[in-house]
Amino acid sequence: xxDRRVSSASNEDILPCPIQEEDREPLxxxxxxxxxxxxxxxxxxxxxxxxxxxxxxxxxxNGLWVELPLLVTDLPEGWNLPSYLSVIIQIANIGxxxxxxxxAFRPSLRPASVIYGVLVIGCLSxxxxxxxxxxxxxxxxxxxxxxxxxxxxxxxxVDCTSSxxxxxxxxxxxGIYLPSYLVGEGLSGLLPALVALAQGVGGNSECINVTNPxxxxxxxxxxxxxxxxxxxxxxxxxGMMVASALAFILLExxxxxxxxxxxxxxxxxxxxxxxxxxxxxxxxxxxxxPSPKSExxxxxxxxxxVMLLGQGWACMLTNGVLPSIQxxxxxxxxxxxxxxxxxxxxLANPSAALLTLVLPRARTWILGLLGMLxxxxxxxxxxxxxxxxxxxxxxxxxxxxxxxxxxxxFTFIMTYVRVEIANLMREQGARALFWCGAVTQxxxxxxxxxxxxxxxxxxxxxxxxxxS
Length: 468
What we know:
Layout: H1 36-40, H2 44-55, H3 59-66, H4 68-74, H5 81-91, H6 94-105, H7 111-132, E1 137-139, E2 142-144, H8 146-170, H9 178-199, E3 207-211, E4 217-221, H10 230-253, H11 267-276, H12 301-324, H13 326-330, H14 335-358, H15 364-386, H16 397-426, H17 430-456
Helix pairs in contact: 2-9, 2-10, 3-8, 3-9, 5-8, 5-12, 5-17, 6-8, 7-8, 7-10, 8-11, 9-14, 12-15, 12-16, 12-17, 14-16, 15-16, 16-17
């Protein structure tokens, strides 16, 4: 879900961001590519390959989030499954941490050599997910989706590591191709959401009489009938991963596009590339090289701290707390409401990032107001989860519409706030950007772990059973 949910980190940030994908900003351009003439002399094939390569950045994790309305009905974890995924994604950040340490000890290591291994793991894990996602085992007296959870870890490892791996690789190409890559990175969230919308969930659950092994009968929900199965959906994700891998291989091997590469970047260039990975909000059109005559005003220590706290709070909600309880928030309103909330909020994510492309930089007081509004919407979402199985306006069309709207509005507002805070912190320099990444990861981890304990240990949330 960025993401739900994920963002990336810099070379000097060994605390990369988990879900999600929304806190990235293409601020890198090669000096040779600043003229209009140079912008016109490009090879469209490189743009296409860069975009396809970018699709593989977060497509697997985002695909899992939008497919949850169907997964929670088939797997033994049920409505607790989202909380498991949130924690697994946090644990998967050992991947980018390990790569950051490896890069520190081996500065000459080319990102391309590691990307090959990452893509192989991603493609194999996606393929295995297609055939093993329903396999379960008994652990400690409880049935668990061990195959799916293990493969989710591997896919999360791939996607989280892409945050600190793919952008340095793109630094070896002319800067005019960076927006194409970032368009693909945005599509890694958009495409799975569109596929999920096309798939549907087959309507809300209907209760049918089922004969039990002891010859008694009971009412149980009828199996959902989406337009195509979960397995088919995972095969589509696998196809996207394969397309991304093939695009990378062609970028590396095609002799006809070698001329579009720059000279091998030095440490400063790579560092700039990683700063560019903070947000994909400025894909085209805005000047990305700051003018030496227009230095941004220095932020006061108080405002500096407020921005970091705001970023940590927003990430705790968007990457940790609310994704973990989305099933409880939406489930009682029906499968259709849950499906629409998951898919449309996934679409709201890149839409909010795109909005920063056409709007001027937000003032801090506006971000504060938006943050408070987003928090109020989050409070309503938490209330619907806490009051399950009897949330407000349950069984009414207005209740279903309201919970879907709440999820879309919350995701849109908080994504915008997070991106703009990252933009403001970037203007304060690399150190501010480091702390922005640190609080992003810390907030996400605290939210995910805390909610996992509340859901699975203290059982504070109650699922809704339509046929009870």
